[in-house]
Amino acid sequence: MRRLSIALLLILLAAGTARADIEVADDLGQTLRLARPAARIVSLAPHITELLFAAGAGERVVGAVQYSDYPEAAKKVARVGSYTAVDMEKVIALKPDLVVAWKSGNRDTHLDKLRALGIPVFVNEPRRIDDVARSLARLGRLAGSDAAGDAAAQAFRKRHAALAARYSARPPVRMFYEAWNRPLMTVNGEHLISDVIRLCAGDNVFAKLPVLAPVIDTEAVLATQPEVIVASGMGEARPEWLDDWRQWTKLPAVARGNLFFIPPDQIQRHTPRILDGAERLCGQLDEARARR
Q: How many whole angstroms separate alpha carbon 153 and alpha carbon 8?
């Protein structure tokens, strides 16, 4: 009888383990439950694809959107349209057991359709630097690559802390981040890029605007009198339109030679590489301080 009881207990414990769900809250605060680690994942944003690979889940990514080009292996993943125009038929044909979406980039109608079909959807929306670390850990958990995800998160936080210790207490520098030139676009204080600016002791001159990525005009920039202008672009090359500001010779950023460039992949993607952009920005703001 005693042996029977022990055997029954072991069976119940095994059954309980088998039924244990993976539970992870996404960036909307919604808890996603999976019966087992996701084996077929579709990514609906380039930064999400990069995060999945960084979290050790690259081999489980069966579909990704256009411009999912990092790391090199991500280029070989089947394409399902772009993040703004997802090809739903291709997504469904891949039979994913998890779709990872981007709140600011994907259409709600697409995500609602996926949910209606019974496909689990995890929504990612990093707004602070540490959200990148949290994303790595949570995606690793969903994909069953917990150890890799946690290790990547820990390494990211360690590097983040080192940059904060070195730069965050330095004298503030008023700066304008030019995300694009036509239309002229920037970011407000809620954007992840603004958190990078704060890390480097920068002061985003458009932090108080209500829109996450607002369109502004030249007059608004001139009125703020930024000491530094940092531009993005399309790739690794410095955009020619950054030099358009030189016509306003009395603008502090122009008068002091503080027109800088950071490749978009290093600061506009919510991935571990954002600390590469942060390190570059912190160095640029130090140059500006030296020119005062």
A: 40
Q: Which domains does the chain have, with CATH numbers?
A: 10-158 (3.40.50.1980), 170-290 (3.40.50.1980)
Region for residue 271 given its phi and psi (left: phi exceeds 0; alpha: psi -120 to 50; beta: otherwise)? beta
How many CB atoms are closer than 10 A to CB 72? 8
Q: State pLDDT tens for residues 2-18.
A: 554 554 444 444 444 44
Report the SS3 class of residue 34: strand
Query: Contact 53/136 with Cβ under 8 angstroms?
Result: no
Q: Write the CA distances from 271 to 137, 153, 165, 171, 196, integer angstroms.
A: 12, 11, 21, 27, 12
The pLDDT tens digits for 12-47 are 444 444 445 899 999 999 999 999 999 999 999 999
User: CA dist 86 to 45, 165, 202, Å?
Assistant: 10, 41, 36
